[in-house]
User: What shape does this take?
Amino acid sequence: MDPKWNEDLPIYRQLRDRVVAMILEGVLGDGDALPSVRNVAAEYRLNPLTVLKGYQELVDEGLVEKKRGRGMFVTAGARTQLLKDERRRFLDKEWPNVVASMRRLELDPKELLDGIDEAKESHGGASDD
Assistant: This one.
């Protein structure tokens, strides 16, 4: 996790978002333990209650479960649920802005898609085709 915090968003929310990113990127998988509240608080010099609040949001969303005396763990299917939710959020909130920018800049969708394929090839990524 990046130790730099954005002043525009509460730290507990940024912490939650970082754990979500780790799940989406496969750094944390189903059943994996989250770093302990105590360790995260000490490493990033945060109040343990701040860390706990960020973790509690993940519990409330069903992405993480508490196991008494053992810690917090990524729930089964968390990544699948996050992908579904993040895709919906992207399509509802971000995509209309992307489309508006494309129209304003007169960008051709095919040109953009070709650019994605070229970027994948130049970075050694596999195509989704």
Summary: The chain has a mean pLDDT of 90. The chain is about 60% helix and 5% strand. Strands lie at 64-67, 71-74. The chain has two domains: 11-76, 82-122.
